[in-house]
């Protein structure tokens, strides 16, 4: 009888196991990257209107590069607080905006910076003019970082 109970227990989990497998198709949408950004409340917008000319690859490009003309507007991709304004080797004239305790965005190669340290900015606010500081052509280098680690901004930006 003791051996009969475990076999009965084994046969019912198998049946229960088939029902959860039918429920498994629902969870895959949950791990998508965009919902985690929405959970952080970012709702990013494009920081510039040009064409993407360089994409994230974690080694040589920690963000995306967006082509443009000298002086094109660069806008805050989300509301936040400016935590850095200045020149950084490899990024040129750079602005970094903190959006939450986990997320920040960086905007590099600007010609003119229109915000100051500790300034609060709104989503879509002009923060800089596009330029070519410390790079070979006019472009915006845009990075999204979660807990300091670069992540692919294209997974969080709206589709174009």
Mean pLDDT: 83
Beta-strand fraction estimate: 25-35%
Give the low-pLDDT segments: 1-37
Gross geometry: globular
The share of residues in helices is: 10-25%
Cα-based radius of gyration, to the nearest Å: 23 Å
Q: Count the strands? A: 10
Secondary-structure element sequence?
Answer: HHEEEEEEEEEE
Defining traits:
single chain, ten-stranded antiparallel beta sheet, 10 strands, 160 residues, 34% strand
In brief:
The chain is an alpha+beta fold. The protein contains two helices and ten strands, in the order H-H-E-E-E-E-E-E-E-E-E-E.
Written account of the structure:
This protein has 160 residues and is an alpha+beta fold. The protein has 2 helices and 10 strands. Strands 1, 2, 3, 4, 5, 6, 7, 8, 9 and 10 form a 10-stranded antiparallel beta sheet that branches. It is globular, with a radius of gyration of 23 Å. The chain starts with a helix and ends in a 9-residue tail after the last strand.
Chart the SSEs and their pairings.
Blueprint: H1 4-23, H2 33-39, E1 52-54, E2 64-67, E3 73-75, E4 80-88, E5 92-98, E6 103-113, E7 120-121, E8 126-130, E9 139-146, E10 149-151
Antiparallel strand pairs: 1-2, 2-9, 3-8, 4-5, 4-7, 5-6, 6-8, 6-9, 9-10
